[in-house]
Amino acid sequence: MQTIGRWGRVAAIAALLAPVIAGANEFSGEKVVPMSKDGIVAVGLEVGPVVFQEILVQGAPSDPEAIAALPGGKKVSPRASVVATHRGHDEVLMKIGLTFQDDAGVVYLRCSRELLEQDEDTTNEVSRACDSLSPRSLPAADWAKVTAVRLVVSLVETD
Amino acid sequence: MTFRKEGHVFRIIRTSVVAIALSGPVAATAEEKQHQVDIARDVADRGITRIQERVGSVLFQQVLLQNVPTEAELRNADEDDKARPRFALVLGHTGTVWSKLDLKLQLEDEAKGVLFSCSVSKVQGPAWNDVVGDACKGRWMYMREWPKVRTVRLVGTITD
To answer: Do the Cβ atoms of A123 and B130 come within 8 Å?
Structure first.
């Protein structure tokens, strides 16, 4: 199993690097957007041929009142998905990072996903963005302090 | 004779057991509550159509229209070319019981004529912005009818 895991990682890194070595186009971008009470966060970030339309906050309420109504001492494990439209002609490999923070920049939760593929010419595709979550859960009281989400994206076009 | 009597008693007991067993689901069914769904919204420019309507325990947030034909595809389409749109349904559920969704998603023209339709079934528990994905995958409509699309409609039932 360890061997498969190691070779899987090697294959994944090779897949990410191959287009870079071949001189494929690379793009990156980031944007901080306000958190919304319904957990549907409008983004509108264009990175190369891909437009990131919105972030769907899942696994926990986003409305401070609903968070406060959770049982006392409750921990939450929020997740997120991104909705993106790709109007280019080449498949892309993406790395996505999300940071949930307050107005002062204090970070309460990070999540990320690497080597996410998106086919060319797709509309409003929904992709999980939180394969890796840090911390794995947090007190609901801390989650209620989140007022903004930072989306960081890097992508490369493949053939 | 005695053996026959015992057989008769056994049948009565068996029938009673079956009746008691069946009465459980019947009682549970009586507690279920069915809600009718009929929600129509104009299709938004980018295919992200906000709904924000609660039916029973389910909060319909958005319909994402996917695999939309490009302008070039529409411009160059032949008479028989097909579009294969898909939907992703974004919904929340804040109830304490699970809900069964039986829905039909439709794309309609201005006169409410159905241009495209498919069914979605799901059992949904508590959730925030869950995505029911790949709805209508494999179905198609004629590309030439795509410019007539005006409305997305959800019809069906939710059973809490």
So the answer is: no
